[in-house]
């Protein structure tokens, strides 16, 4: 009986130690983020092949990491995250320009989103129903970046596996740059029309 109790105590202590070690410490997990300027310089140093592989990560992860919370305003044009304000069209064109894509950044930012999508995208589609847009995205290849135009708004849609995200400068309550699931996006769900194009790099 004593042996059984001793073994049980050892097992409990062993489990406790393992539980404390699950995952890395905050110090091990924290990676110091470089300045946005340095981040863009790192992109410039990549080859075209490296940039093609990196493009989804750039839009889907790194841009939200830097830009999330930068406030929206109708006339916002800032080139620097967390400084000033950014309108939805300028958010899209600034991000693409920062990646090194040669575009008419200011002109396209000031046009209806349909002009930008026709200029920058392939496989352009129009939908009047929200569920048709979602079904279309899920029918396409995974790990894809799109530009979507709404009634009065624009942004990126990304698809990674079966998860779809809307990355945009959100005008609702001047919330600014967000990455949100498409299914719960108020801006996306409020629109009556949708134009979407595949963004090729």
Question: Could you describe the 3D structure shown?
Answer:
- The protein has 201 residues and is an alpha+beta fold.
- It is built from nine helices and six strands.
- It has helices spanning 2-21, 26-29, 36-44, 48-67, 88-98, 105-109, 113-120, 130-139, 186-190; strands at residues 121-127, 144-149, 154-160, 163-170, 176-181, 194-199.
- Strand 4 and strand 5 (176-181) form a beta hairpin.
- The N and C termini lie far apart (69 Å).
Give a count of the beta strands, DSSP E runs of length 2 or more.
6
Q: What percent strand?
A: 15-25%
Our Rg estimate from Cα atoms comes to: 22 Å
Structural class: alpha+beta
| First-last Cα distance | 69 Å
The unreliable regions are: 1-31
Record keyword descriptors for this entry.
201 residues; globular; alpha+beta; six-stranded antiparallel β-sheet
Topology readout:
Layout: H1 2-21, H2 26-29, H3 36-44, H4 48-67, H5 88-98, H6 105-109, H7 113-120, E1 121-127, H8 130-139, E2 144-149, E3 154-160, E4 163-170, E5 176-181, H9 186-190, E6 194-199
Antiparallel strand pairs: 1-6, 2-3, 2-6, 3-4, 4-5
Compact summary:
The protein is of the alpha+beta class and 201 residues long.
């Amino acid at each position: 009986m004593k042996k059984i109790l001793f073994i049980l105590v050892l097992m409990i202590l062993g489990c406790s130690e393992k539980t404390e070690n699950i995952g890395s410490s905050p110090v091990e997990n924290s990676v110091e983020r470089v300045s946005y300027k340095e981040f863009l310089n790192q992109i410039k140093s990549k080859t075209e092949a490296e940039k093609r592989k990196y493009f989804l990560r750039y839009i889907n992860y790194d841009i939200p990491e830097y830009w999330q919370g930068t406030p929206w305003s109708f006339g916002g044009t800032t080139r620097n995250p967390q400084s000033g304000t950014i309108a939805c069209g300028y958010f899209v064109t600034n991000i693409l320009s920062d990646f090194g894509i040669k575009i008419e950044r200011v002109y396209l930012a000031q046009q209806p989103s349909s002009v930008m999508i026709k200029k920058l995208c392939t496989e352009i589609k129009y939908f009047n129903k929200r569920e048709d847009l979602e079904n279309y995205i899920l029918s396409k290849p995974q790990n894809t970046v799109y530009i979507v135009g709404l009634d009065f708004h624009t942004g990126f849609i990304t698809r990674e596996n079966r998860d779809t995200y809307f990355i945009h400068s959100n005008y609702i309550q001047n919330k600014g740059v967000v990455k949100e699931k498409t299914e719960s996006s108020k801006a996306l769900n409020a629109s009556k029309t949708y134009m979407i194009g595949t963004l090729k790099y």
